[in-house]
Design brief:
232 residues; alpha/beta; 5-stranded mixed beta sheet; 8 helices; 18% strand; elongated
Amino acid sequence: MQEEEFLQGFIGLAGIGSFFVTYYFTKSLSLSTTVAISIIAIVIIVMVVNHNKKVERLKKSGIADIDKMDGVQFEKYLGHLFRSQGYDVTVTKATGDYGADLIIKKNVRKIVIQAKRYSKNVGIKAVQEAQASIAHYGASEAWVVSNSDYTEAACELAKSNQVRLINRESLIEMILQMNPNAAPTPKQVIEQLSTDNMICSRCGNKMVLRKGPKGEFYGCSSFPKCRNTSAV
């Protein structure tokens, strides 16, 4: 809303400004009006072109599909993303992960990562957990990766603790720089990990993706009544 109001104001100023500047030099009302209308038309065309480029950029990145992911799907996708960049990737277990969802390595560099698939800004807790996990995993640094942005407090704490924050815009840029054949798209990851059509062979209830001490698996949604599981 604020961006739209700014653009409307800019278009108005461009038209009014061009009208008065032209009239100042020419004293012609008709010419000044023509110039003002032309300037407004040009500005609108440029804005439309830029808007279309932005929309295409977002579409190409698949960020809309990432917004639909659950936490496990987001972690899985980030694993593919970092592998495409040459990192060795380990996904930590769901319980007792000590503040890290992923551990990535390249040469002697070891990084712990907090993955936050949020619909709102990520707060200070994620930074605290990421920073605390450095010592536990013997890492050299910590990152928090999100499809959203961060609160001001989170940004301030990250600066003082040398935690790298990768926000929505940075994530989009990372995805766009990736070789399109190096990893599955966000949509493909969702399809691969979707359990919408997976039914428990014992009780007929839906199977859901879970994480345990030995990694990811499919478990019956009626647990603990039904303890049926299936490998990923």
